[in-house]
Amino acid sequence: MTGDLVLRPIGRVESSLATRAEAPRQADEGAPDAWVVFDESVRVALQDLAPGDELILISWFDRADRDVLTVHPRGDLSRPATGVFSTRSPDRPNPLGLHRVTILATDGLRLHVDHLEALDGTPVVDVKPVLGDISER
Question: Taking the model in full, what pTM does it have?
């Protein structure tokens, strides 16, 4: 493979989660509400987002170990080592985080979202809507 991949943050997470030890493994395991603060350069891209919208937030796990190729699922050493591509481990060659969230409130460049397991300061690289049924598209 050739060529460079250029990825730039468009925002950052503001969360009460400061360390990986504090973070739940998945959002539905007790993740707190959080704010996502976006860069001024993407303001116009946020204009149609509203409370109640469901989004896929794509983050960059900047504190991940990019050399990890296998993990024991959920950190359970009694389980066999498994390739990271069949797990949701944050440690992986390209540590993208996928987070399904619902917007609770908007405030200019800030979105208040539910159940976000990303750590405080985590870079956000994209946002996509959750698609409904084909008849709703």
Answer: 0.89
